[in-house]
Structure formats: C-alpha cells, structure tokens
C-alpha cells in the first residue's frame, strides 16, 4: 500500500512538474516563418525579430525613443566630439560561455555597417576603431556626427547586433553559419525546422541591466523558459489556434479578423508599436514621365492618404493621416510645407501634368496581390491617379515578382516600371539618413534611383549634425526640398496590434516585438 | 516481367531529364530575382549584384545548368538559397508529414469509396445510389480549403475533438500523430472518395450486366460473393487506374491542405520555395514529384496483371 501511495505521489509530482514546464512555454505565430537567421545579411523584419531574441546591442532605443546604453556600461565623449570610449558591462558572455570582447564588437560594427545605410554613412565619419583592453574600445571620428550613438542603437533593420568576432568576420554578403549571440534567449538549433517552428530557450547566464525594461532598452529579463515561433501561413488558422488556446499569441492578426479576436474575452489586443508602419509610393525616377519632377509633384496633389488607409486598414483606431515625411509622433515630425498636398486636388494635378507636357502614355503601376497589407493599395492608387489626369496600367503579380521588377531600370515597354507601393516600419524611417527613399545619389540609391545633389547635401548635413535642435531644422529643409523633387510619397501611417491570450503580461511597447519581460501565468 | 520493369525504369531517365531541363528553363524565364528578394528595400544595385554573384546567378544559363546537372549526377541536389541547408536534408525532413498525410488520405478514400461505389452500383437507381452520387458531385465541387475550414470549425473549434493545426511526428507518440492527422486526411480524402466511388460504381455497374454474373446468380451464389469476388475483381482495372492517378494528383492536394493545417511537408516547402524564388529547392522538389509520378504509373501498370491475368508484359 505504501509503495502505491509513493508511486501516486511521484506520479502527481511528475504531472505537476510537466504542467509547470508547459506553463513556461510560449507558443507564438509571427508574421512569417524564419527561414534565414542572419539579421545582417537580410533586412527581413522576421529576421530582425529573431535577432532580438538571441543577440544583444551596444545601445538600444527606450519606450520614449531615447537611445540608452545596453551592452555598454558607460561611455565618454571628448570635448571636440571626435573620440568616444565605450566600456562594456561586466559579465557579458556569449551563449557558448566565452566572454564578450571589444574585438567582437568592432568586428560586428564593421559587418553591420557594410550593409546598413546608416552604418555606411556612419563609416564615412569613422577614422579608427580600436580595442583598449578586455572591456573597452575607442572610436575616433574624422568629423563630429550624431550618427554614432544613434546608429549603434538603431532599432530596426538592419540592427547592429553584436556577434562573436569569428562569426562577424563572415563576408556581409554571405550568410553566417554559427548562430551564437549574447542575448536573453538561445536558439535551439536542433529543433529549428524551417516551415514548422523555431525554438528559443532562456539563456541562464544572461546578466540583465538593473533598470526596468523599457522599449528595447533596460533589463532584458526572460520570464519564460522556452519560446516557440510556429509557422502558420494561414491567418485564419493562426487566429483559430489562438481562440482554441493552442497558441498564446499572434503577432500580426489580419485586420478583418480583429473583430473575431475582440469577441473572445480570453484574448487581449496590445498596441505594442505605437509608431507603427508607413505606406509609401515610390517612383522610378529614371523613366518618363516620372523623370520630370513636375509630374511627380502632380501625384502629391492627386493622392490622399485616407482613401488608402480606409481600403487597407479600415478601422480608424489603427490608422492616422500623417502628411509629415518623418513619422508622426517622433521628434522630427513636421507638417511644415505640406499644406495643400495629399488632398486629392485633381484639378491642380491635371494642371501640373499639362505644364509638364505629359503625353498621356500609360504609367505602369506594380500591384502586389498576395500580401494582404498591400493588396488594396494598387486599385486605390489607380483610381486616384486616373482622376488626377494619368493613364494607369496596373500590372498585378505576386510580391516577389514586384520585388524583382522594381530593381530593373529597363524602359517600361521592356519590363520596367513607373510606380510601386510598399510599407515601411516607422522605426526604419525616423530621419533622412535612415529613410532609404530619401537617398538621392542616383545609381547608388535604392530602387527608383532619385538623383538630387541638394538632397544629398542635406542628408550629409544631417549626418554631421549632433545637435537635435539643428537636426530638426535640417529635417524641415529636407522636407522642403522633398516638395520640389518628390523622391517618394507617404500614403498613411498605421499600426498592427498583437493578439495574445489574457494570461500573458509584460508585452513591451517597442518598435519591434520582443519577448523578454513577457510572463505567462 | 523483369525485362519489362527494367525497360520501364530505363525509360524514366529521359523523362526525368526532360523534366529537369524544362523546370530549369521555366524558372529562369519566370519573373523573379532571388537576389532582389534577399537584398531588401534599402539595397543598392551594387549590393543586389553582389548577392547575385554569390548565388551564381550572374553566370550564363548554360553554365548554371551544367553546374546543377553535374551536381545532380553526383546525387547532390544543391543548397537552398534561403534555408542555407542542403536540399536533400530539407526534403528528408519534410517527407514524413507528406507521406503520412498521403497514406492516411488514400486509406480513408479507398476504405470509404469502394464500398460506397459497389453499393451504389448494386442499388442502381435507388435513393442510396442518388445519395452516393450526390455526395460525389459535392465532393468534386467544393474546394479543399472550404472543406478544411468547415471541418476545423465543427470538430476543432466547436467540439474541440481535434487540434486546429499542426503536425506531430510518429516518434512523438501514436495518439498525437493520429489526432493531428485525422482532420487533414479527411479533408483531403473527400475529393478522392468522390472520384473513386464514381469510378467504382460505373465499373461495377458495367460488370454486373455481364453473362458470367448472371451465371453466378443462376448457380445460387450469394450476392456478397458475386459483388466482391466476381464483379469487383473484374471491375478493378479502371478503379486501380483512378486510385493511381489520385495518388499522383494528391501531390497538388497536399499543397493546399498542408497550408491550411500548417503541416510542415513537401507541399509547404514547395509553396515557400516558389514564393521566395528558391530555384534549387523548386527544381529538386519538382524532380522528386516527377519521379514519384513516373514510379506510381509503373506500379499501376504492374498491378493490372494482378487483377487481370490476361494482361502480360
């Protein structure tokens, strides 16, 4: 009898233990499957999110948008603002147990800066980067810039994640093959099955900062033992699984499914990223008629943001009209000089087209049909542009075809294009250096290839200026110049909430979804 | 017979070669650039060109084909552009879910469809026949994803009998394996039940009018024996053909079903690879599917001789 009782107690303990373990596992459906795990090699947001799981950063953006030290314990700035000395925190180790060294950080900064636009600009200011001792390193600049600290705390793709030197020395155009970070979670490589799931476990030796977590900064305390990102391609199925309690969170539920989620009292919506995203229309500046600035200006009169946002988001709770070329709700935001634009003044658009001598040749609008967030933009753009005096040939295809066509500079009748639409995470376009579409360096610019020396000079001025007040003035000058050259057009700001079961708490307000501080009860 | 099998096996080589060439060329002609997909929104033309160079996509098409064919001849399917894993390893990791789903689907389809078809033929013109044929038309007409969502709503969300999505390998426990396979397999089997039941009915109906059936009845054979021993066996050749074609068509069906139920099989791998323009993976998967198709056709031909001794190779 006694042994039976002991067996029962033991069995109960095992069951209780199992339940406890279960309670510490977070099952999440992210917006996409993780196929690539090198956050420097690609700008894909899902890979950036993966980066925040296993890597750490020297600096990080807090909830208020300020850049705060993260792996860095302290830093000094010389009076001439040319020499910066960084000291790393005590106890930082890689997932393999080796200590984080300044050499690791320098190699990581170099690899990141070879790929990222802010990093590339930053490197034009950097003279040398040298390790001083086991914990500190010095960056010497050729001339002062506000990009150093901002760049090292850049919140979105590409994020300057720190990697061991041997990994960071991989050619930036080749994927890394070792996935060791120093962040709060460890990648379980043996359980990573692309197309099925990616698994992370708590890094037990991680030393969080003492401050409370705030945005991407502060103490990164992992409160669950294991996190599984499940690859569920079908949005309806992800929500079904959430409603059935099979999973804990859906990162980006489709807007038409939000009422379904809201109707369940066990689910809560979190607006974790108040700055959200920005819809954008991009011109091909190398092909007529958009090689003529007057024709591009006509577009700024023909369009209005509300029509796009109504067609794609629908619920005003999740969108806002934002005429500023820098994200509304951030320090550089301003509507100065934007009066009269984006109000669907079709008459003005038609007048400008007449002045520009537009010959009525149809413009090719690339329309993506398979990404829910972008699908409805095309028909709205077509309708508004046609009312504004354009003839539009909307060519529909899957997103990857759009991506492949948009990098072609060929004439329109040989597979080229005139306009396309995309969406940016707001944290990627906070200033004129970060926002790749302001890059007007002709062939060296991103697709669309705008060419404007004055715009480039303003961007350089911004990069050189460390004073935030003067940066704001330069940003306004950029906006004024934009009105003349119109590199691209913003179509409205929106945000996507996280849907999570109510037993989850601690989801942080940040430009990217992060999983430290998240608790499951 | 052995000579026939060998001849058929040798004949698969040119078929697979033609498939390989066609797939390779069609992919290169399809709009899409993996380098642009990888490079992202901020990439300059120079960065895209660098990635293209790393992937070997800047080489002439003939050179690319020669490299791929050379590797293939050595049994090397190459490495995925995106997953950075050998494609053989990727496929090996995806075969179990797809095979399990395909096997369970065909098992359900055959077990349900053949008795239904025989019954419909036997009760020709009755309300049973009409119900079976009505179901058959419905099974053909309703898309797989609609059936999937309906079953999920009823059996997973409302009744909570089965999980909404996901797959559990057999090694993780038989109970969980079966529980997660039931809804996807039933979803996918509906169309095959319709197809096989219809064909079985037509074939058995034709055989039931033959003289030897009448003779069997005159000899006093019981109806069950007449139906299953005499009629069904003689009606088997077209049924086997339809089952075989069904298995081949299943490849297309699993793509949708695996997406709806989040099953990490070859169908999902194909969709992901196509959307990302992962050329080496698409080429390998299509080649594999072609091999399976050719293999199934061979097996069907061989099965004919089992059911009809008059057929000799």
User: Which strand order spans the largest sheet of chain A, edge to edge or round the barrel?
Assistant: 8-9-10-1-11-19-12
Biggest sheet architecture of chain A: 7 strands, mixed
Radius of gyration of chain B: 24 Å
Summing up helix and strand content along with how strands pair, one would put the structural category of chain B as mainly alpha
Amount of helix of chain A? 25-40%
Please state the structural category of chain A.
alpha+beta
Task: Give start-end ranges of low-pLDDT stretches of chain A.
Answer: 1-22
**Outline of chain B, from the CA principal axes?**
globular
Q: What is the C-alpha radius of gyration of chain A, as a whole number of Å?
A: 25 Å
Number of helices of chain A: 16
User: Proportion of β residues of chain A?
Assistant: 15-25%
**SSE order of chain B, one letter for each helix or strand:** HHHHHHHHHHHHH
First-last Cα distance of chain A? 36 Å
Overall outline of chain A: globular
Quick rundown:
The complex is a heterodimer of chains A (521) and B (313). In chain A, 31% of the residues lie in helices and 19% in strands. Chain A is built from 16 helices and 21 strands.
Descriptive labels:
heterodimer, A: 521 residues, alpha+beta, 7-stranded mixed beta sheet, 6-stranded mixed beta sheet, 16 helices, globular, disordered N terminus, B: 313 residues, mainly alpha
Task: Characterise this structure.
The complex is a heterodimer of chains A (521) and B (313). Chain A is globular. Chain A has 521 residues and is of the alpha+beta class. Chain A is built from 16 helices and 21 strands. Chain A has a 7-stranded mixed sheet with strand order 8-9-10-1-11-19-12. A 6-stranded mixed sheet of chain A has the order 14-18-13-17-15-16. Chain A has a 4-stranded antiparallel sheet with strand order 4-5-7-6, with helices on one face. In chain A, helix 3 (102-115) crosses helix 4 (117-123). Chain A is 31% helix and 19% strand. Chain B has 313 residues and is mainly α. Chain B has 13 helices and no strands. Chain B has helices at residues 2-29, 34-39, 45-55, 61-73, 87-122, 127-141, 144-158, 174-208, 211-218, 223-234, 236-260, 266-275, 279-307. Chain B is globular, with a radius of gyration of 24 Å. The mean pLDDT of chain B is 87. Classes of the chains: A alpha+beta (521), B mainly alpha (313). Chains A and B meet through helix 7 and helix 14 of A and helix 2, helix 3, helix 5, helix 7 and helix 12 of B.
